[in-house]
Amino acid sequence: MNNNQNGSVMVIALMLMALLTLLGVSAINSATIEIQIAGNERSYKQNFYKAEAAAIEAIQIIQNSNKSQLEAGLIKGIIKDVKMTKNSNWNDSNNYLTSKIDSNSYYSIVYEGFKPGSPPLTQALHYFLIYGCYRGSGGVVLIETGYRKRLDINNPIPVSSTGNENYGIMANNIGNKEGIYFWREVNE
Question: CA-CA distance, 125 to 151, in Å (whole number)?
Fold first, then answer.
């Protein structure tokens, strides 16, 4: 009878060791997956910040430009009637400029038109959609922001466009302040 009990203790011990081995392997796999997720998150954040920096670079270009520079078309990269949220539009180098931040970071400034408005009546808020894009080995991140600048309504900004040169009036409920009026990440 003692012989049979000794054999059953050995079987139970082997089963417990097999169970503990499975738990250890599962914990290692879980930790490996968590490390990969953290690495992907870090890479995404780096790419996001590079796209954001490119958008900020474009905003600074518009912000630091005076009316005569904008009206004379001296600011490179201002385009019209191009939907930069379409990935295919980033394949045409006429639609964007490379950022000084990184060789894989780009920005695009799309002129949207002006909103006649607040006094003096010769002033208007000119609307721009500004895009920052990072396209690298870690993926693609696209930031879109709206920017407005007050300029003379009688001298619209010249833009590179093959389409209609009609400067549309923007919605009246956005407000009359200069600067950034929205900021978002674009997901296709």
Answer: 6
